[in-house]
Amino acid sequence: MIKFLQNMEYFALFCVLYIGRLKSEDMPPSFDVDDELVAKAKKGDRRAFDELYNKYKRPILNYIYRLTGDFHQAEELTHETFIRVYTNIDRYIKKAKFSSWVYTIAGNLTKNFLRDRSYIEKVSIDKKIAKEEGEISLLDVIADETKRPDDQILKKEKERLIQRGIDKLKPKHKQVIILCDIQGLSYEDAAGILKCPPVTVGSRLSRARENLARILRFYER
Which of 46, 82, 130, 208 has a C-alpha 20 to 30 A away from that of 161? Predict the structure, then answer.
């Protein structure tokens, strides 16, 4: 395998920057317009809830998929997430962002699934997904549409290498990498989801990046 990194510091930086290039299709939309929609949804406005659903369904689906590695199970858990959001929206109190509340529900459902099924976590952004029009991968779903096909091919090997490293991370490190480096959340938003101070998110992310770099250096030998 071609060596494209020379030291851990550069390797860690590469991982962060390269994974960040996958964010564009996966990044949740702006959170600051949710309050009005939530207020309307609490009054029974179905259109307002549908707008919230359409806003968050894709990032939540991708978030759960990366944690479980099972696209069909991710679809079911996403569906269950929004059922719970819909039935409990009256209980939502703006102590945290609405997005953090939705991510927390999704995360708890996913953790329960992984624990109850004794599920072995394995995530692959290149795993094939069956569709009526043929097989595609999650990478095809989240890929930046502005990239040329030849660019995608050239980066395939690096993507697989990085994904192998992500698969080896501890759950808490995998989660913070997904939230911050792939989905592009701020420390504050990630902290709301992970129920920890932003400074903890920062230190955990730093450790996750270091561990990912160490793992990938091993693969490069």
Answer: 130
